[in-house]
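Sorry to interrupt, but I need a hand with the structure work. Can you supply me with one protein entry, sequence and fold together? No commentary is needed, just the two lines. Leave the record below and I will have a look.
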Amino acid sequence: MKRELIVRSDSNAVDFALLKDGKLIELHKDIDDKKFNVGDIFLAKIRKPVTGLNAAFVNVGYEKDAFLHYHDLGPQLASMLKFIKRVSTGKLREYTLKNFPFEKDIDKHGSITDAVKANQSLLVQIVKEPISTKGPRISSELSLAGRYLVMVPFSDRVSVSQKIGSKEEKDRLKRLVKSIKPKGFGVIIRTVAEGKKVAELDKDLQNLLNK
């Protein structure tokens, strides 16, 4: 089975086509509306790590560079960088995390210059929209929020909102989510998931996977 990703871009949009054995199976168009909303995810490029700030300025396509602090890199940074490199070089044909081997989490108190390099590509998520004098604030600890669940790629951890007081309910929700979650994704169970059945949780999970 051969998979190919074809990208075509112009000044207004980017087209993504995924082929399987020469046949088109997915087609997406990303229109460049110049908006940077909280939660949006971009493939960005490190412009300059700054030791004194323990942060990096990152090009996300905005007129001003985005700001990425070391503490916003996320513990799974090494796994994400490895995934991007293998996809971009064609060494990874299956664009899922099902059989992807994770790297060790990065040091919580490390240095930005040890973690990322200039011109390195990484996935980032907008956590604060840009203002007139500053670019957006970003994080490379990605998350996809649904109604009941939040999915975290490059992780296998399942955690439950502390606002759910019942230990029995926490254990029930953890057990259900562990039985349905895809490999390679961690899940945070939100407070509103309390009392929900597995079918409702699974539907929320599938909606997130289809984003």
User: Anything to note?
Assistant: Helices lie at 77-88, 112-115, 167-180, 198-209. The longest strand covers residues 41-50.
